[in-house]
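Example 3.2
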Amino acid sequence: MRHMSILALCLGGTALLSGCGGGSDAQVQRAIKDVNVIDASNLNDLMLTVGDPNESVAYFRGALQKDPTRVDLMRGLAKSLSRAGKPTEAAGVWEKVTATADGTMEDRVMLADAYIRSNQWDKAKQVLNSIPPTHESYDRYRLEAMVADSEKNWKKADSFYEIAAGMTAKPAGVLNNWGFSKLTRRDHAGAERLFTEALKYDPSAFTAKNNLVMARAAQRKYDLPVVEMTQTERAELLYTMALAAIKQGDVSVGKGLLQQAVDTHPQHFEAAARSLAALDANVRP
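Structure, written as tokens:
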């Protein structure tokens, strides 16, 4: 404990350090610099996970103005831009990262992600094809699945979705994407199974709940699934089911579901009430 106290005092400043074992000024500066680097790294990590993403963008832009060659700061800016809903700008930064000597295969994966977010599918495919098969990661396979989906290569998409789901402890998101892929193929039973599985991992995911209701309604299953939901969510899911029923020609069922949605919502449910009024006026909502 006495040694730890002396070490703390030695790190306290140049004056104290000069009296601790005869350390040189150069050693003192290196020690201070190392501590500052650790502090900066912690701050960088913090800015990536909390707060307003636009504040994070401003932070990393400011840091890069002071040190424009720092690849870790470029990565932070690119991730922050994606969080702020600016994928095209993020892609531009990832392009710079991947062009540096310190660029990694995972940086290329993130570049492909930014391309997909900015609807540049051909570029995303080119980047993914440039990554050797030996580089295996959850994000890589998740993106490979999405590209295969965009090309309607269902067999390949299913293979990549399955691999990705097995590579993460939190597969709810990729299972939801896979389920939506099945939904677009009109494999409604397969979609229902995947949305149900996604909700086992994340019971709070409303998108998966809504998608599950659509998959069930497409099979004319007009009862709510047994999943966790708030009263507001119940009303919104009833509304989704009602619209699906009406679209399929089950107008009377849809009307009843709309009424349930209006009655269930803890506040005034304007969209459902308006659709119900339109039905009563013999106008398709």
